Amino acid sequence: MVQNIEPEMIKQVISPEVSELMKDYCIGVVDEGTGTRARPAGYRIGGKTGTAEYSGKGKVSYTVSFMGFAPADDPQIAIYVVIDRPNAASQEDGTRYACLICREILGQILPHLGVPKTELITEEERKDQNIPNTAVLHGSSSQEGGEEEETEGGDDIPVPGDEVKPEEETGEGDV
Questions:
Q1: pTM score, whole prediction
Q2: Domain 19-116 in CATH 2.102.10.10
Q3: b/e for 84-111, b at 16 or more Cβ within 10 A?
Q4: CB 102 within 8 A of CB 38
Q5: What are the pLDDT digits (tens) for 8-65?
Q6: Residues whose CB is less than 8 angstroms from the CB of residue 107 and which lie 6 or more positions away in sequence, other chains included
Q7: What is the DSSP letter of 40?
Q8: For the chain, which residues make up each domain, given as ranges?
Q9: Cβ atoms 43, 118 nearer than 8 A
């Protein structure tokens, strides 16, 4: 169940300028920093990875996290993924796990909320997230003859920039 709670300003703790600057930094973390794996294909998001070490009983453990918001230009959803003592070789690997969990969740929620994809899907994302090459499906110039080749049924698959609408809900299997 999705519940819409309207915000109520109680106290302004940072200026709008600082808020915008922090948002830009978070977008940069996902665009070209430690949070690149958190980005669901076709969406621009912002976020920040985190790690915390703690010790007890003579052993050092750590927690990894990723905080994100989407879409970046008009945030509709915030997400916080925390993994306590991840089964990972390093803190960096653990942080990657948190990013991948975020990507998976946002990749399902954003289309469900009707948020359109606005970003081009990179070849790396295509491979990493098992996305078909829509250039072939929609027809692309042949290397040899320069002619277009259409693949049957390809019009149903969105290309970068297409607005993707959520599927009709039937009520079957809804939780």
A1: 0.67
A2: no
A3: eebebeebeebbbbbbebbbebbbebbb
A4: yes
A5: 989 999 999 999 999 999 999 999 999 999 999 999 999 999 999 988 888 888 999 9
A6: 40, 41, 43, 129
A7: P
A8: 19-116
A9: yes
